[in-house]
Amino acid sequence: MPALLLLLLLPCLAFAQPDTTWSQTVGLNNRSYFYDVIVVNDSVIVACGNSQTVNGNEVNRDFLIAGFSLSGELLYAHTLLESNNTELLEGLCWLGGDTVIAVGATDVQNDILNIFAFSASSGDTFWTRAYTGAGLSRARGVIKLADGGFAITGFKLGPQNRSDLWFVVCESDGDTVFTRSSGNTATDIGNALVQLPNGNIRIAALWREIPTSDYDQWVRTYDLDGNIVGTDVFFGTGGDDFVYNVSLDPEGNFWLIGRTASSGGAGYVSVIPATGQNYSLTFASNGFADQFFDGIPWFGGMMFAGRSGNQASYSSPFMRSIDEDNQSIWTWRYGAAGTDVGFNAMAVLPNGGAVAVGSLALAEDTSVVSAYVLTIAPPAGVQGTVTGMSDGEPVIGARVKAAGDSRYTLTDVNGEYRLELAAGTYDIVVTGDCIESDTVFGVTTVENQLAEASFEVGQPAYDFLQSSINIIAENETVGGTTLLLGNSGTGVMSYSIEAVALAPVGSWISVQPSVGTIAPDEQIQVNVIVEADTTNDGIYEFFGEVTVHTNACPDTAVTLPVLVTVLETGDPAALPGNFALSTPYPNPFNSSATLTLSIPLETELRLDVFNIEGRWLKTVQDGRIPAGSYNINIDLTGQASGLYLLRAHSPSFSATRKLLYVR
Prior knowledge:
The chain is mainly beta. The protein is built from no helices and 54 strands. Strands 1-2-30-29-28 form a five-stranded antiparallel beta sheet, with no helix packed on it.
């Protein structure tokens, strides 16, 4: 039975900035360490590492796994595949159900990369896999992939007896999909990885060009076929700079978390932002060598966990929190210093708090080290999920805030958010592109808890009812037509319309109303108004654009070309004598075709496009139109190749023309 210490709300931590809820130490043999942690099924905390038996100068290390309830109860803690070799687990991921994957290595003549699948609830092993390296090899990080498999990074021996980055992708049962290794002639070590929203896998690694040069942070991206994507990214200060873990925040910023040997030893993070330039940050403390080993998004900022001490190799558990402007809020140190003692990994808890794991030295004898688990309560605030009413999918990047407050947070790739608010009562508002704004009223927050406020938001959808606007107007008079806007989505669609005169430049075109809203499954008409002013010596063509901006996705801005035929004032000879609709030109066509429409009298007119089965596709014109001749442009881009019909209908005239579209 492992030695176990449960500490609830440690009184000696009363001065600390984070509000701790419980902590545990687990001691197997002389020394034990946790190197990674995950939360499974919102109910079990799983940690991995190794336990060490010391016999004089000899140290035997064994794989270690442990499970805890969210309230701090130890469910299991035991070693795996005990042997006289050096064994270490450094990475965990949850595959779903009760299955957890742990990865590590066995130090033998040709090191073995080990993979374990085991039960999160009991710690019982389901299966194991092993890869034999050609010398020094390690597995450092593992993630579950969107397709249900998993990916591993680490290092293996490469040319000239130098380590190369190692990248392995497996099916959910452990069968290999592919392996890749890459690097230069010096030391290259993969430490952590993450799958990006586009499916590619980004690996954070260490890079050293020659044996005598310093380490730099290195980022390489692969696609799911194992091909290198884009250009490698490097960060460094001029001294040794390490990366141990990565984090992808709700805004899509990619954080490399580690330390630098510069500045006497400091926490060092580099950021590849979703937009903008890459940058690095150094966080130093007077009199301490600080090291970041992991970090998580924390209520608009970040919280880092690691080690701190008078020297990098002799340390104790350490945390630092920063705000949205990357300014430090607090730092926290605890416990006696020991060799390589401190935090190594973090995870977010279901209640919005956090768990950190690592090791803790015994104050009376710092050579005795126990694996350490600490949980942190969330601040007062609110958390929840934003999903779409149309598809039930998570809404990514929605803004959530308290009404009247300028601060906000964004939903992550799972549609989840956490927002820190002082204890009180609030109306919580969600806004964003592609969704209808919504509010949950009267949410009460209390200290060290996150209230729940989830949203199912409407999703507007803009109907492409017209592809162009064609107008015949008389010079020196007010003319125009109507533009039909439709919303086939589940949320209210907001719109604003901008009209631009291109040729000639001026203010001869406008739209009324230029802003408004459209309820789900409704259509409205807006007036496109033309006031042409030219010489009465012939027929002129004016060109413009109308851009419709909406909160509908994927096209939040749709631009329609405007063609205006300007007739001489009071020139009846310029008007057609009969209704007529020409044949399209060209026909067949592969993008758009043009027809000429002749109207002898002002009339109500509707132009619709149908497929050969009679299904309506779009409306080109619907409304009152002055007498004259019109060039009608029909754009079928995006439709399937085939035969289509254009139907013109007015109270005194109707005609149909065939359109042959070839992609």
